[in-house]
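Figure 6 in text form: structure in, sequence out.
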């Protein structure tokens, strides 16, 4: 059972501020998810209409309401500019409940350690508050940058869990797998 008593809507790192998305973030969600560069390895995630973005935001918000955590808006501390999104959602992987780690950032923030810093903070936060569920990241074999982010966030390759994803093979990286 998930512990919903740890409802936090803000998380700070040395350089970043992470907070729960609000309706005012829909334009930023659309901007990042409609950029073909950011969805190169996951083209099925690409958005082409604002209405799709409203639906995506609603799914994110529903997860927050149900579990007390989810995907976060990531910004530099002291800035109002959204760099991207990072967080976890409950999902099923091969019959096992897991927390899927997600991160997507605007291309201009790539190569600066932003994704790794945000993912590390999210993994630390969620493993402390939801210790009963393993954290996994589903990464395309060709997406070496995303693989590095997963490893820097404390996940390790779990080849025995690799699966077919919507856009091709999913390599699984995991933390706190139950034996």
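Output sequence:
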């Amino acid at each position: 059972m998930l512990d919903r008593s740890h409802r936090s809507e803000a998380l700070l790192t040395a350089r970043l501020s992470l907070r729960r998305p609000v309706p005012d973030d829909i334009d930023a969600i659309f901007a990042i998810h409609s950029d073909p560069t950011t969805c190169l390895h996951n083209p099925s995630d690409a958005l082409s209409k604002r209405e799709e973005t409203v639906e995506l935001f609603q799914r994110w918000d529903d997860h927050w309401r149900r579990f007390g955590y989810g995907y976060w808006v990531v910004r530099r501390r002291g800035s109002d500019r959204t760099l991207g999104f990072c967080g976890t959602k409950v999902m099923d992987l091969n019959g096992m409940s897991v927390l899927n780690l997600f991160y997507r950032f605007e291309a201009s923030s790539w190569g600066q350690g932003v994704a790794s810093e945000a993912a590390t903070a999210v993994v630390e936060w969620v493993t402390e508050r939801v210790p009963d569920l393993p954290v996994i990241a589903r990464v395309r074999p060709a997406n070496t940058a995303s693989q590095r982010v997963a490893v820097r966030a404390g996940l390790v390759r779990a080849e025995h869990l690799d699966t077919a994803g919507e856009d091709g093979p999913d390599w699984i990286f995991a933390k706190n797998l139950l034996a």
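Caption detail: Residues 50-67 form the longest helix (18 residues).
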